[in-house]
Every structure is written in structure tokens, then in C-alpha cells.
Amino acid sequence: LEENLEVNRRTTAENDFVVLKKDVDCVFLTKEELESKVDVLDVELILESYALQELTQFNNQMCDTSVVLKMDNTRDLDMDLILKNVEAWYQNIAHTSKQEAEAFYHSKIAEIQNNRGKFNEELKNNQHEIAELNRVVQRLQTDSENAKKQVASLQSAICDSEQRGDIALKDARTKHVELQTAYQQSKDKLACLLRDYQELLNTKLALDIEIATYKALLEGEETRIYISFYWETSMVTFPESAGRYDF
């Protein structure tokens, strides 16, 4: 019964260890996914910074273009009207391009900022989850180590129980052999005693018969002697009585 309990404990501990291992694997997978998300957020932040730099550079280029056009306006040419038209055309294009670029970059910046807030929140949540998962991993690792120790302890206990069981079984077998030997010896002694008892009974019976025979012989001899003595006594007494009658 004790060995069965040890085996059941060992099986339960092994099953718990397998479950803990699965949980740890899931935690590590979740941790890797969160780390991947963090890497993506870092890349997006880098892209945001790069976009801001590009927008700043574009604004600077627009300012430089306006300056060049103004410098060109200072030229003393005969085609002032043409140059003014060209300047207005270029300014219109530059203004339109600048507005479109600013609108595009502002929308992208707003989107990035919105996403940045969301990503920052997700990052905080992910960091919190990572910290929580790290604590869970540490706890599971501790539980796993404890389970390993329990399994090792149970294995040691099972080995000890098996060794004790083997020793007890050997002792029981030895005692069984000793008892069988003692039983056989007692059986042999009893058989010898029965034979001796039977021989004694036979001897007693023979002696009883012999004694009865001797007793019968003695009684017959006593009877014979008694009768012989009686006749002899009678013979002696009878003549005396006859002589007495003669007188």
C-alpha cells in the first residue's frame, strides 16, 4: 500500500511538472510576442522622428526657394513682367506643394502622434504584462524547481521503499525457508516419535499378552498345587478317621 501511494505521488508530481512546463513555454512565447511589438514600436518611433526631420528639411528648402526667387526679382531685366509671372507661377506651385506637403506631413504627424499615444499606452501595458509575466515565470520556475525536488524526493523514497521491500522480501523468504525446514524437521521427528510410540505400543501389547499368559499359567499352577495339596490332605485325614471307627 505504501509503495502504491509513493507511485501515485510520483505520477502526480510528474503531471504537475508537465503542466508547469507548458505554462512556462506559453509565457515565454507571449514574452517573445510582446518583445516583437516593442521592437515594432521602436521602429515606428524612429520613422516618426525621421518624418519630422524630413518635414523640417522640406520647410527649409521652401524658404530657400522663396529667397532665391526674391533675389531673382532684383535682377534688372527687360522682361520684368515675364519674370513676375514666372515668379508668381513658381510661388503658386511652391505654396501649393508646401501646403500639400504640410497637410500630408501634419496628417502623418497627427496619425503618428495618435498612434504614438496608443502605442505608448500599449507599450506601458505590454511592459506591465512583461513584468507580470516575468513574475509568473519566476514563480513557475520556482514551482518547477520545487516539483523537481519533490519528484527527486519521491524517487528517492520509492528507491528506499523498493530496497526496504526487497530486504523485507528476502527476510520473509529466508524465514519461510527456515520455517519450512523446521516444519519438515518437526514432521520427521513426529514421524520418528510415532514409530517409536507404535513400537512401544506393540511392545506393551506383547508384554501384556505375555503377562496375561504368565498370569494364567500361574493361576493354573496355583490351582493345580491347591488341588494337589487338597487331595494329599484328604488322603491323610481319611485313614485316621477309618481307624477311629474300628474301635
Q: Your description of this structure?
A:
- The chain is an all-alpha fold and about 250 residues long.
- Helix content is about 95%, strand content about 0%.
- It contains two helices and no strands.
- Mean pLDDT is about 70; it is low at about 65-80 and about 240-245.
Category by helix and strand content: mainly alpha
State the separation between the terminal residues, measured CA to CA.
121 Å
Biggest sheet details: none
Mean pLDDT: 70
Radius of gyration: 66 Å
Q: Which spans have pLDDT < 50 for at least 5 consecutive residues?
A: 65-78, 238-247
Shape: rod-shaped
**What is the N-to-C succession of helices and strands?**
HH
Strand content: under 5%
Tally of DSSP β-strands: 0
- Helix residue percentage: over 70%
Report the total helices: 2
SSE layout and pairing:
Blueprint: H1 2-73, H2 80-246
